[in-house]
Amino acid sequence: MIEVNLLKCTGCGRCVDVCPAGAMQVVAGHARVDAARCQGCEACVGACPEGALSVVAAPVTPVSDRPLRVRPDVVIEASPKRGVQPWHRRLLPALGMLASFTAREVLPRVLEYVASLPAKGDAAGSGKAGVMGQGPTAGQRHRHRRRGG
C-alpha cells in the first residue's frame, strides 16, 4: 500500500505519469492513491522527486469481535494454496521495483559514462587512430593463436 505525505507532496504529477495501473491522481495540489487500482509496483515511489510517497503495510481489520473456533483439518483444506495468483500479478511489482532502481541508480551512471566518452571524430593522438589502415599498427598482420591440437 502506498502512502502520500501531504506535507512533502508538491503535486508535480510525476507519480501519475509513471503509474501503470492509473491508480495515482493529483487532487487539490496533492497526490492521491486509489487503493483498489494500485498494484503495488512502487514505480511512483521511485519517481517522486520530493520523497513524499512511501510503502506501508495494509491495515488488517478484524471480521468480528468474537474469537473464531478453528478446526485445523478444515482450515488446511479450505485455505488456498500459495502461489495461485496469475504470474503477471507477481511479476508487475518486481518489474516496477526494477524500473525504479534502474532509473535511480543505473541510468545516471550510464549517462555519465556515455558523456565522458570522446566524440566519434575526436580521437586522441594523431587524429587517425580510428581509421582503418592508419595509426600505430597500420600494415601489420594480426596473429591469431590456435588452441587445441
Structure write-up:
The radius of gyration is 28 Å and the shape is flat. It has a domain at 2-58 and 88-116: Alpha-Beta Plaits, CATH 3.30.70.20. It has helices at residues 14-18, 43-47, 72-78, 87-116; strands at 2-4, 24-27, 30-33, 53-55. Helix content is 32%, strand content 9%. The strands form two sheets. A two-stranded antiparallel sheet has the order 1-4. A two-stranded antiparallel sheet has the order 2-3. By secondary structure, it is α+β, with helices and mostly antiparallel strands. The longest helix is centred in the last third of the chain and has 30 residues, at 87-116. The protein is built from four helices and four strands, in the order βαββαβαα. The protein starts with a strand and ends in a 33-residue tail after the last helix. β2 and β3 form a beta hairpin.
